[in-house]
């Protein structure tokens, strides 16, 4: 089976859904292809700064997300060994110039999907190869079908099939490892609305920031030793 689409976006993550919603707001139809069988709402939280909120407002989802995420008031960096404050930056003012919040990824995806038209996202649609045919791109899917498109947008993450087809360089190691997660405790409301970072020295750093009064996002990052690299 072969079909023709004006615009195909590969990947239903944050960037793919934001692109589709932006086009939809302008009255332009697109098709999002997602290899998973449903929206992948896994993940933790994303620290969003003023530019992100300008983009979310332009997409029409800013106010919806503000309802579930508190505005952060300060960014504090401390030494974990001495407790001394190394830096402190206020994030509030009379306007929204420094608006910063920590967004739960699943709520961000749900907000982006909410106003997309039915049929905009097609799940279980894994692209196995891409070829060019004149001004069109031929997308060959794992189920044997083919989609022709005039515009192809790659938002398919680290191991992007679109980037590989375009000949982009393979991802390289950044030189750091990181772990992160969420803690939810409705019985003990979070009091401080601060981004907190602690430096331990020798490349070790950890911190946390609240998403709302019940949810805290934490992270830990370090520069790996040769021993660490053996386990990757």
TrEMBL record:
Residue stretches in coiled coil: none
FAD-binding domain location: 6-227
Database matches in Pfam families:
FAD_binding_3
SUPFAM superfamilies according to UniProt: FAD/NAD(P)-binding domain (SSF51905)
Domain of life from the UniProt record:
Eukaryota
Q: Which keywords does this chain's UniProt record carry?
A: Monooxygenase, Oxidoreductase
| One MF term in the entry's GO annotations | FAD binding
The answer to whether UniProt assigns keyword Oxidoreductase to this entry is: yes
Which stretches are transmembrane? none
Which family is it part of?
Belongs to the 3-hydroxybenzoate 6-hydroxylase family.
Q: What is this protein called?
A: FAD-binding domain-containing protein
Q: What is the lineage of its organism?
A: Eukaryota, Viridiplantae, Streptophyta, Embryophyta, Tracheophyta
């Amino acid at each position: 089976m072969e079909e023709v689409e004006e615009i195909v976006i590969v990947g239903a993550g944050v960037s793919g859904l934001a692109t589709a919603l932006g086009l939809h707001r302008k009255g332009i139809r697109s098709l999002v292809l997602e290899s998973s069988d449903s929206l992948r709402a896994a993940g933790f939280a994303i620290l969003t700064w003023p530019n992100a909120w300008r983009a979310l407002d332009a997409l029409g989802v800013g106010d919806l997300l503000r309802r579930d995420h508190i505005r952060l008031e300060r960014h504090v960096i401390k030494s974990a060994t001495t407790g001394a404050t190394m830096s402190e930056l206020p994030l509030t003012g009379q306007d929204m110039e420094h608006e910063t919040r920590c967004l739960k990824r699943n709520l961000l995806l749900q907000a982006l999907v909410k106003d997309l038209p039915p049929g905009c996202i097609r799940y279980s649609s894994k692209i196995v190869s891409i070829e060019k045919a004149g001004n069109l791109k031929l997308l060959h899917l794992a189920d044997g079908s083919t989609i022709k498109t005039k515009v192809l947008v790659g938002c398919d993450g680290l191991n992007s099939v679109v980037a590989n087809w375009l000949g982009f360089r393979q991802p390289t190691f950044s030189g750091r490892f990181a772990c992160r997660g969420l803690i939810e405790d409705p019985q003990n409301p979070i009091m401080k609305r601060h981004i907190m970072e602690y430096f331990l020295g020798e490349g070790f750093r950890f911190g946390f920031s609240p998403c709302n009064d019940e949810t805290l996002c934490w992270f830990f990052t370090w520069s790996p030793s040769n021993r660490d690299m053996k386990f990757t």
